[in-house]
Amino acid sequence: MRANYKMQRLFVPNDLANGSAFDADPQQSHYLGNVLRLSEGAEVLLFNGRDGEWTAKIAARSKKAVRLEVLELQRPQPAHPDLVYCFAPLKVGRLDYLVQKAVEMGAGTLQPVVTQHTQVKPGIDRLRANVVEAAEQCGILAVPEVREAEKLDRLLGNWDKDRRLIFCDEDASTNNPMAALKGIEERKLGLLVGPEGGFSEDERRMLRALPFVTAIPLGPRILRADTAAVAALAVIQATIGDW
Fold first, then answer.
1. Percentage of residues in the chain having pLDDT higher than 90
2. Are 88 and 225 in contact (CB under 8 A)?
3. Residue 233 DSSP SS3
4. Residue in 171, 185, 186, 157 with CA at minimum distance from that of residue 216
5. Does the residue 4 lie in any domain?
6. Structural domain tally of the chain?
7. How deeply is 5 buried, as exposed, middle or buried, from its count of CB atoms within 10 A (0-12, 13-18, 19+)?
8. Is residue 161 within a helix (H) or strand (E), and if so which, with residue range?
9. Same domain for 153 and 235?
10. What is the dihedral of CA 225, 230, 232, 237, to 10 degrees?
11. Higher pLDDT, 243 or 37
């Protein structure tokens, strides 16, 4: 069942079931009551990443809180996407874009990675807020997990060897990623996108030496890191992913 984009959607941490009721958090209460100016009886859509999507009504309003009463299940909870998306953090505006597009395009786990050329320390709370915003806007119910940042060598050392890791290699000898992708047999996948300035030579050598890693190019043009991330997700999902 497709998402209903005509109703306001909110992510909530609360358990959702018919007849349950709770107060929206202060920010959401302000948004519903003072920005949207919804009155008692108005309906919204709620999801929590666990229980599917439900209609709920505004059961009561006060100056400090909006109380929500859960009514009816609209969409069941889908399976959580399995794609692990690993990325070097970028500057704030571009990182926001990267995270939002990763959510839209089916990433199940977001893993910030610190590489030799990484210049930005990721703010995990901001990443999680961007994940929720993208899920609310795009009708997504399976909200991706955001993990704490990890250094590249530690990430690779702890990697599940049954999960194929695809990394975007700007120094690949070909411009066409299709041959490498079509040769992948694993269904469990990860994607690794480097920072502004790319991976160092030592990092490329380390990645290429690992049996669970596949290097792919992204065409003849030089792409910004956030553009490369979207392009890589698109070609992987279209070739061997869930599209």
1. 60
2. yes
3. helix
4. 171
5. no
6. 2
7. exposed
8. none
9. yes
10. 160
11. 37
